[in-house]
Structure to design on (978 residues):
């Protein structure tokens, strides 16, 4: 979408006013900065007019007010690890980069952290752990993702079933309305029941309803111990059936990761060694228990007994290093898949437990029907599967097949009572499927809220609601900070 | 607020249309039914025109559509245990009573419950516990409060610091927009990141943004064991200082209740026996640990050591019966206070941990300055204090003093960085203080959302935003189901 001439004049005028207001040194327009701010991990590049690095709180308000007056799109940006294009400035304008605002203060007495939006998740976790506390949300981009971005997308991670998602660890938010007024939602207290729950409406709204400048996080006591375990199954269906049996206990593993055989093959090629020597080419379940040592000791017995009955092979990590080795393999799953195609449609769907097997069978059917690899792994205790549809973008036929396959997948997911996104959000990538998930009244309600808060439609416009055919856009060839191979040792 | 003549004609017409649409047997207009639906635990009675007991889902939509067409106020109602007047039909019209919709289905495999809005919290808890699961939110009205009402108010309870509030246990909601369209928010899955988080916006919106007809709840594994402990301190300040030391560990008690000496005196008069024989007229902390037995055993040592250092007297409950006895006393606190006046302003404020002592000193100052009793107890691990201002309503001077005292309290709370409500919500009772808590931009945003969802302002109108001087309204003399003395044994 190109800005029309009148819009362009408006935008130029606005930018010179902004320079005067907040200082030219807070604004970058060099091509390197523009390109870096033009995309996220979905690699869909749309160049902005400028990247703004505000130095003071009130600069954010001033910027938004100017943007409203001159109708300049504003796209807030954190670490840029979104996989959906949520941070791409699809309509140009200004990128608002708050990654330099990164203070982290731990209140060890109250079990809370007060953080700025640019603080990285790994930094927050380390700071909390130094004082005996724990911040559980663990997206795999943990070293790069910022708290602002993970709040905007309500990011999840592997430990969601036991520990919940980002929304479950937010006591309060401060920031600015799209129209530039300063607001504070929920005051950062442990309970708050005054007025509408705007805090939670902001969470997961992908930077379209407000700009976060401060967050108060909930911390919990750090689990005393962990235990990691790997179990192999000849086929996916057997792994999933066994997982359901394990969860029935009720036993609440901190992590229960499922890997299908396509994923395991990718990993084995990528790292050039078997994931589980005794059982190559198996579907795997990676299990982690955490909590009090005595509790783990008991639950471990339950898991071992279960493994004897259901798994073909299994092994426990007998040291922290061994556990870390298992997790390192899991963390490169996403990267490893690029052997099966230079492009992937990466879906983070959710289905109810009763639909795990129909879902995995459907991914195998898609593979047969469309001739594309569909490696799938996921967080099985909460039904959040990552289904990937791999293709080579240069191959027009494959690209068309991928488009058909993803439509078939999303329709199936919704028909199984599932969700088109569990933790990535909609961004640009899932926009064609939003209307599969929500009826007209639901969409209209969301749009009415957008209009109520952002009447000029300036804050991260083009996201969530406007259908965008992501598979038709050529991704940028770029090496992002998290693009690396694991050490092969 | 009396309906004008034109409004009355409209309302009569609407009611006869409604009878035709959903059946006369679903509608009650007898004076007993009208009175019962006219108030909640705040006892502020406003008679509705009719009480509607819909039999089918679509009846709810039809009712709301008619109400919009003819501008009839609709007030949804659960167990009527709200303490703020949130369920009072302040503008008349129709009360929508869903207490007969009470099915509870436990999915023991997924750790979820699917419930209808009229299911009582105690019923849900028992059903979950029978299958080894646990639904933690525990408002003291647990036997009478419905899940619909506790979602509408985001109810808390004693175990909030460890287990969170109602919002933390809601996976999905279904129901109707104020304009009558059926919607489903978040599909009842363990993760959901598609579109705006409308589910959480409904939670705590006090029945002003939608009518809930179904909820999917999160359950957690039931804690294996509990341990209950009572500690006495000569003065409030010592109790609070000790509580802060205990929380520093970090140790997460399931419950940490504080009782000031005024509360303890009320209890002792009411039950005609000392709460803690060894230490009459003390400020108390009631502590409960839960979890794995081995963990409790360790934490117990920490608590005992802490008690030796800080408490004047202490005692552990050595049996479940003894523990239950301690809790029974705590549960009648609210009732016991009516010895100090026939009316109370019951505030559920929250302050940060650093402000506990300034807060309690302020309640004692209010007592001195206004000559009214200010018994205070509360959930200390999350800073949620219940401050009561007691007076005799027949005494005009006392009523004026109470009004002044509550304004002074709320101003102090906000100046301490606190919240005017932690778990009761605003309803009618806290409306005069909403603008102390929220700035103009915040209030305008909330009002814009109300308008976006309920353009005709028919759903539970008059609540949250319109200042209402609750102390000027004579409460109804009525015996509600939960008005009873404890067995004195």
């Amino acid at each position: 979408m190109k800005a029309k001439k009148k819009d362009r004049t408006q935008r130029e005028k606005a930018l010179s006013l902004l320079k005067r207001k907040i200082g030219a040194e807070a604004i970058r327009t060099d091509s390197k900065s523009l390109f870096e701010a033009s995309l996220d991990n979905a690699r869909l590049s749309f160049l902005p007019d400028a990247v703004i690095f505000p130095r003071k709180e009130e600069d954010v308000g001033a910027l938004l007010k100017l943007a409203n007056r001159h109708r300049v799109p504003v796209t807030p940006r954190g670490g840029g690890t979104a996989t959906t294009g949520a941070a791409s400035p699809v309509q140009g304008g200004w990128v608002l980069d708050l990654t330099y605002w990164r203070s982290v203060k731990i209140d060890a007495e109250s079990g809370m952290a007060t953080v700025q939006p640019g603080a990285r998740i790994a930094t927050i976790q380390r700071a909390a752990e130094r004082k005996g506390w724990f911040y559980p949300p663990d997206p795999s981009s943990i070293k790069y993702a910022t708290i602002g971005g993970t709040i905007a997308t309500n990011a999840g991670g592997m430990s969601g079933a036991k520990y919940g998602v980002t929304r479950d660890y937010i006591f309060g938010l401060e920031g600015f309305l799209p129209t530039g007024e300063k607001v504070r939602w929920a005051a950062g207290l442990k309970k708050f029941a005054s007025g509408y729950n705007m805090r939670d409406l902001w969470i997961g709204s992908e930077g379209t309803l407000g700009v976060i400048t401060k967050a108060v996080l909930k911390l919990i006591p750090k689990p005393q111990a962990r235990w990691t375990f790997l179990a192999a199954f000849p086929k996916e269906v057997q792994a999933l059936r066994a997982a359901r049996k394990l969860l029935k206990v009720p036993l609440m593993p901190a992590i229960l990761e499922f890997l299908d055989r396509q994923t395991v093959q990718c990993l084995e090629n990528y790292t050039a060694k078997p994931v589980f020597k005794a059982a190559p080419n198996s579907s795997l379940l990676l299990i982690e228990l955490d909590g009090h040592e005595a509790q783990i000791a008991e639950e471990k017995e339950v898991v071992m007994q279960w493994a004897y009955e259901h798994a073909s092979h299994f092994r426990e990590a007998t040291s922290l290093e061994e556990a870390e080795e298992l997790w390192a393999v899991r963390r490169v799953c996403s990267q490893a898949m690029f052997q099966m195609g230079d492009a992937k449609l990466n879906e983070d769907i959710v289905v109810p437990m009763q639909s795990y097997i129909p879902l995995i069978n459907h991914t195998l059917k898609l593979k047969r029907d469309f001739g594309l690899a569909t490696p799938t792994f996921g967080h099985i205790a909460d039904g959040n599967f990552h289904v990937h549809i791999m293709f080579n973008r240069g191959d027009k036929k494959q690209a068309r097949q991928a488009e058909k396959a993803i439509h078939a997948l999303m329709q199936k997911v919704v028909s199984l009572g599932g969700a088109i996104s569990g933790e990535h959000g909609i961004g640009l990538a899932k926009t064609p499927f939003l209307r599969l998930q929500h009826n007209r009244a639901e969409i209209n309600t969301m749009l009415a809220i957008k209009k109520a808060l952002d009447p000029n439609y300036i804050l991260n416009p083009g996201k969530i609601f406007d259908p965008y055919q992501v598979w038709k856009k050529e991704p940028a060839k770029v090496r992002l900070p998290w693009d690396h191979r694991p050490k092969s040792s």
User: Anything to note?
Assistant: The mean pLDDT of chain A is 93. The CA atoms of residues 307 and 314 of chain A lie 7 Å apart. The domain at 2-97 of chain A is CATH 3.30.43.10 (Uridine Diphospho-n-acetylenolpyruvylglucosamine Reductase; domain 2).
